[in-house]
Amino acid sequence: MSQSEATPAPAPTGAPAGIIHDIGYRGYDGPRLSRRRVGFGLYTHTLRGIFGLGRAPRSKVVPMGMAAFMLLPAVVLAVVSVVGASQLGLTQPVLPYTRYAMVTQAAIAIFLAVAAPQAVSLDLRFHTLPLYLSRPLERVDYVRAKLGALTTAMFILIAVPLLVMYVGALAAEFDAGAQTRELLEALAGAVLFAAVLSALALVIASLTAGRGFGIAAIITVLAFSYTIVTSLQGLVGFEADNLTVAGWIGLFSPMTLVDGVQVWAFGVLPSTPAGPPNDAAGAVFLVVALALVVLCYRALVRRYRKVKI
């Protein structure tokens, strides 16, 4: 190759010279987080986002509003316990701890219907999953972080009012041992409520990138399943006088399913027309509840293995 071919031609006299601009990008020389740390960061980020923390003020209205709605009856019940103990001779709370989630299930459903799409639907809509997976994060880690965050949020939503009721019971000088035992039973029920409802809602929300569709679908599933199941229980149990069949029908709604587990495990009264008809049925309720969580988790893992990045 000749010298003329190897050497570029000089720029014409007076032509502007090239300029390299420094726009401030710098390489990252800090520590690289592990897969576990990245997953925990996604968990905390999702948990904060569910409650609207770090987001616009309008994003806090529904989650904080439903949290306040959940807390208000507990405050009233705590006051009733204190006043009732001194004025009416009450010796226990008006409402058992294990029934609180069932009584406030409308607020739970609304909170869940907004929180689940917030956790996963927006990632599908704005295609942010590739950004997460560009870190040392696997798809199964993404599912665990999202499911764990939503379950934690649901547990907090249910557990905090129970603690308020407990403080009111202690202030009313009810039997501390009995109240502590009943609180722990209700908290165990709250864990199961949170796990079952969160797993089911997250599967529904992961099927659509539209937040509105996810909200509508979750509320529809929870409301219709509960309404249909309790209506059938009432018809079969009272009109057909068959409480055994009415109790088994409770398997087909997530709310009545978990309530049935509480009835069997703790010997409390059902919040529905009929609970599990016997101990064997109660064990079946528990197995079905746990199986539902496992199946929903596996469905989520399968769903996100199919998401293209």
Write the layout of secondary structure elements.
Layout: H1 3-6, H2 35-50, H3 61-87, H4 100-103, H5 105-125, H6 129-133, H7 139-171, H8 176-206, H9 211-239, H10 243-249, H11 254-266, H12 279-305
Helix pairs in contact: 2-5, 2-7, 3-5, 3-7, 5-7, 5-8, 5-9, 7-8, 7-12, 8-9, 8-11, 8-12, 9-10, 11-12
Describe this structure in words.
The chain is mostly helical and 309 residues long. It has one domain (35-305). The chain has helices at residues 3-6, 35-50, 61-87, 100-103, 105-125, 129-133, 139-171, 176-206, 211-239, 243-249, 254-266, 279-305. The model is unreliable at 1-5 (pLDDT under 50).
Counting DSSP E segments of at least 2 residues, the number of strands comes to: 0
Q: Tell me the major beta sheet.
A: none
Number of domains: 1
Give the H and E element order. HHHHHHHHHHHH
Q: Structural class per helix/strand content?
A: mainly alpha
Overall average pLDDT: 89
Distance between the termini: 46 Å
- Put simply, the count of helices is 12
Low-confidence stretches: 1-5
Outline, from the CA principal axes?
globular
